Amino acid sequence: MAAVDVEDESILASIFKDSFPGSFPDTWRSNPDFTAYLSELSSFGLEKLSREPERLAEERAHILQQTRELAFSNYRTFIRTADCTERSHRDFSRVEASVSRLLDKLPGFTERCRGFMKEAEEIGASRRMNSLTLNRHTEILEILEIPQLMDTCVRNGYYEEALELAAYVKRLEKKHASLPVIQGIVREVRQSTQLMLNQLLQQLRSNSQLPVCLRVIGYLRRMDVFTEAELRVKFLQARSTWLRSILAAVPDDDPYFHITKTIEACRVHLFDIITQYRAIFSDEDPLMTPSSGQVNEAAIFHGWVVQKVAEFLEMLERDLQRGVGGRLDSLLGQCMYFGLSFSRVGADFRGQLAPMFQAVAADTFRRAVQEAVDKFQEDMNLYTLIALPSVLGGTIPPVAPSTQPGTLQPPMSLLDFQPLACFLNNILSAFNDLRLCCPVGLAQDVTRCLEDALKMVTRQVMVFHRAEESAFSSREKELFVQFCCAYAEDLLPFLNRCLQVLFPPAQLALTLGVPAAHLHRYNSLGCIDLAAVLEPLGFVLPQREAPPAPEVDIDAELSRLTFDSQLKEPTPDQNPASPRSGPTDSEPQSGPELTEPMSEEQDDEFSLE
Prior knowledge:
Elements (H helix, E strand, L loop, with lengths): L5 H10 L10 H4 L2 H11 L3 H5 L1 H22 L1 H30 L1 H30 L1 H8 L1 H11 L2 H17 L4 H25 L5 H14 L4 H21 L6 H26 L16 H26 L5 H16 L9 H30 L35 H19 L6 H26 L5 H29 L2 H8 L17 H5 L27 E3 L40 E3 L2
Antiparallel strand pairs: 1-2
């Protein structure tokens, strides 16, 4: 403990002048206990100071009592202490010599005391500075509380006030950048500013309307953390993140449901994002090439739109590959409406939909035709000419063709031959599905696919003939010839007429830019090559002179194909049979001895509408 301060000594001398008329004893002045007690005594209040003499008296009595008890219980120690005292006396002599040497060093100690006085003066100056700081406590506290206030404003969404605080801190940093306190405040404010930036970007990643987006972009511009090009990129990235979260929430178990909901979400939300972007950022002249070193800001938006359209088309193609059933036309309509709505913002992508839907329609038709061929092969493996149905097609009288526009009646003579009727049913089902979404560009692919399938059917008929020819009776040979004639003269011409309804020659000629009379120059374009299909059956089919083909009003048959194969008697509004085209008009109907019952597949009604 240090000795008594000069100032404190002068104060005590004035208080206890009766007890110490001169000055303090030197022993008291250097006694650390006295100094400690003096410091403690100066901190007492008035009441406690008035009770201090009583406490000292009690403590003195207590100490005397303890001393007596100590002397009584430790008298042996006192005896030994006396011996030690004698030895200590001798030691004090040596100590006295040491003190003499210490006195010789006191001048140096005096110099050090003078140095201490100088330090005390400096401490006094520091104390005065602290007093000045205390007087400015309020202003200093406001500055020190800026980081906490900034954090509170950011967390409560008071971004306007937070930006004002950030601007004030920037001015402080410019004036007092060398002060550690200011550096700490700037560092904490920057952390809060980063938090505010994250919150603003998070708002752009949510379902924010145009006013909110305008306000957020205004805050980001005032923060001055992004250039104009970077701000556009950040806006588009944040809105893309929100759009992806919307699309990710759509269930993808059902491809049709997934793609329809995706179309709806993309159409609504993408259009909103584009509207928000154009309202917030202005592209004065998107066609103008930026000068060297500048970013083409219009290209940023164009590239983003192209990317979003590409992502949508990729998702559409993936769901189309998974299969949407017979709802391709509905899906195409929604996609076209989506592309049409985007044409208002200069992002019409309908031209990219046609190849995609065309490929899907072609694949679907190809699979359906292949299934029809496989089913025909199974039926031929189980088919026998002995078990032919009895005059199913022969007993139905021929009726005039229906006057309803766009109606085609399948040949009823095919009901006598169950494999051909089932094959035609399956092909008409494929036509029904194709007609829902039937681009003109599929004319060649559909014709070739159907022609290849018919060649496979012809080969299957030849396989059946080679396997059963040796066991044919005369009646069975006659029935097989009728089977081949029905195939060649009824089924194939009817399929050609169906192709002409699906792909009208006038429309094909208009698309190709050639006269309708020149369509025959384009092979496999809306018309099956009957000669190539029937070539293997040439030795079986009777030789007849083919009459000129009747004129067909194709334009009147665009809207509907109907195949009604019920076995009921015809009613006034039903035409269960139609006359054969070409050579079959003069052919006799099947004999009345055929008794095979109709299959369940022949009772269905097929329409292309």
